[in-house]
Design goal:
By secondary structure, the protein is an alpha/beta fold. It is built from 15 helices and eight strands.
């Protein structure tokens, strides 16, 4: 029996470490040990003293986003105006890709002055992103924005100088959902902490998908390398491929710039489960098709990607960790074990009765995490829910 408890403790510890600090710290050590070519720190001088003209295309792939698009466009237009006030020569284009929309998404986008590309048939998010990038081939930088994302007023003012840093492939703000409740807020806070660690190893290999800014030439090369497959997690495969193709390049993570979720976005449990399932399947896509070569070709990137793999199975590590604690307490004190079991039962009952904000998202994430091995074995695909 003690051997079984010890084994559970070891596996649980490995899972928790793999999901948290282990791989970001290893990646940082390896990154710092590698020699890189010395390059000029800034393109065109210090960005705070010499602002050279920059062009930015802001693309918003959308499918039936009438309810949240207005808030997104309002925030982008305001942030663009703030950037223009400091840099009049800045060129910004705002474009919405309306993919098979049956609501007034396209009409609403035009009212805000955005360029609209409409597809009568649903192509999927990935193909819509590819189309919008091709349409903006003359721009230096591309920002991919989710409908429902709300920018802070100073986002471009703070992000665009970072785009001028030498060897920068992408700039990634952080994200939070004000309506997500304590649990979801805690999750994003923890994830932001680990992304900060990964930023010290050249940058995260997965980003907050609400808003990302990419250097267009590097982005086009990454998309070409990814081929014709319909990838489900663009916020993972794009930064992952960018870093694989550019060993000396960096992705700048900016935690102090927070993109927030629209107050109009409130998915139900069924929608949240579908979204989480799409994310899990998207993770399995790159784990099977990109990760093996990543580990061979770029050890830093491969090590950082391992945390994401461990994170897919987070529900298993959590269960094992709880079992380990219960087993250890039970081995020393039966009354303490009974008290712990009672407290756990009451907490579980309260969570079902009170349904605190964020609990539905956590439950959906746990369900999908537990099903991840089945998805991997069954090779399931979800082309019909690419937009969820």
């Amino acid at each position: 029996m003690p051997i079984v408890i010890l084994l559970i403790c070891l596996v649980a510890s490995a899972g928790v470490l793999g999901t948290t600090w282990l791989f970001p710290l290893l990646g940082r050590l390896l990154w710092n040990s590698q020699k890189r070519d010395e390059q000029t720190e800034y393109i065109g001088g210090n960005p705070h003293t010499k602002l050279t003209p920059l062009s930015l295309a802001i693309i918003i792939p959308a499918h039936n986003e009438e309810a949240v698009l207005a808030e997104t466009l309002e925030s982008i237009i305001l942030a663009s105006a703030c950037a223009h006030s400091l840099q009049p020569n800045l060129e910004i284009s705002i474009c919405v890709g309306a993919d098979g929309c049956t609501d007034k998404t396209a009409e609403l986008a035009r009212k805000f002055g955005a360029t609209v590309f409409e597809s009568p048939n649903q192509r999927g998010k990935w193909e819509t992103i590819e189309l919008l990038i091709r349409k903006h081939a003359r721009f230096e930088w591309i920002s991919i924005v989710d409908a429902g994302a709300v920018w802070p007023q100073d986002l471009l003012v703070k992000c665009l100088p970072l785009c001028r840093l030498e060897a920068v492939l992408a700039v990634a703000p952080s994200y939070r959902n004000p309506e997500g409740g304590f649990l979801e807020g805690l999750n994003w806070l923890v994830e932001s902490h680990f992304k900060k660690l990964e930023a010290r190893a050249g940058g995260p290999v997965s980003l907050h998908g609400a808003t990302m800014l990419y250097h267009r030439p590097a982005l086009e090369a990454a998309i070409a390398k990814l081929g014709e497959k319909r990838w489900l997690n663009d916020d993972v495969v794009l930064p992952l491929m960018l870093r694989l193709q550019n060993p000396n390049g960096r992705i700048v993570y900016v935690p102090e710039i927070r993109v927030v979720e629209s107050s109009s976005a409130s998915p139900q449990h069924s929608q949240e489960f579908i979204r989480r399932k799409r994310m899990a399947l998207g993770n399995l896509q790159w784990i099977k098709q990109i990760f093996p070569s990543a580990l061979r070709s770029n050890q830093v990137v491969g090590i950082l990607a391992l945390r994401r793999i461990f994170r897919v199975l987070w529900a298993y590590w959590s269960i094992l960790f709880c079992f380990a604690i219960i087993a250890i307490i039970g081995a020393f004190s039966l009354p303490a074990l009974l008290a712990l079991a009672t407290a756990g039962t009451l907490a579980l009952a309260a969570s079902f009765c009170l349904k605190p904000r964020g609990s539905e998202a956590l439950l959906a994430a746990a369900q999908v995490s537990l099903l991840a091995p089945y998805y991997l074995w069954a090779e399931t695909d979800l082309p019909q829910v690419e937009w969820k």
